[in-house]
Fold this protein.
Amino acid sequence: MRRIVFVLSGVSRKERRIEEKTFKFAGLKREEIADSLRAFAAPLIKNGAKTEVYYLDGVDDETERSSLKEGEFFVLRRGEDAAFEELSEDLRRKDDGQTVFLTESAPCANRVFARLAYRFGVECVMNADGVIEENGEFYVVKKICGSNIDMKIPLGFAKVITVAPQPDKNVGIALVGGLGLKNGRNFERLKVLAGKIGANAWLTRAAALEFGGAEYIVGQSGRVIAPDICVILGASGASAFMYGVERSKKLVAVNNDSDAPIFKKADFGLLADAEVILTELEALWK
């Protein structure tokens, strides 16, 4: 029977607030990450695969240990080398050729998983988007060529997989701010406007590092959203950011730079200052 091992760079309750401030998880709690990985592996679980969850950076705390569910473990370790050796030993000891390792796509986890794949001579798939079943065979799907092509990799070859952020589809309208918003005060204005029109407010990673919060990041290092309409204010359109919004049905871009790459990717574009347009939008929804 296939075994799926979820490896989370999870932190204890005591450490979580600090880690979120350093953007390690882009605002995602480890429970949310685990749910995302389970959704990714749903076809395998439905087919009877057993699951285990390993939390890296665990602390030997009685409260934390009492919260563990069946099949969940803490890996008490210092540094990536220790985590790598711990997981290598697990693979050597338990693997019957049916184990698949999954983790969230994050710098630490990516490095550890790449080393695991090299040591055991198996394929490592980074930023995979899903698992599908065709004619009784399972494949890992990864978007390539600017997300225009779905590449299918037989699961028998892909033993070590990092999972791309999964789309948040529970939004009709999204307002996303970039550095063109200029400051945190304007982001607060954007959040108020979003509340008035029933939208969600987000930031590019660069803007979040400058004046926002990790929980608002959209892109490869944060959330992936798929709203009906996504209005992007003051973002240039870097590929890492566009990964987080390209599933939107319609993209509306506002930027004061006519050469900004985002205009080539948007359905509608407005050459204007993001702060000015924010003020005009506020006037429409007083």
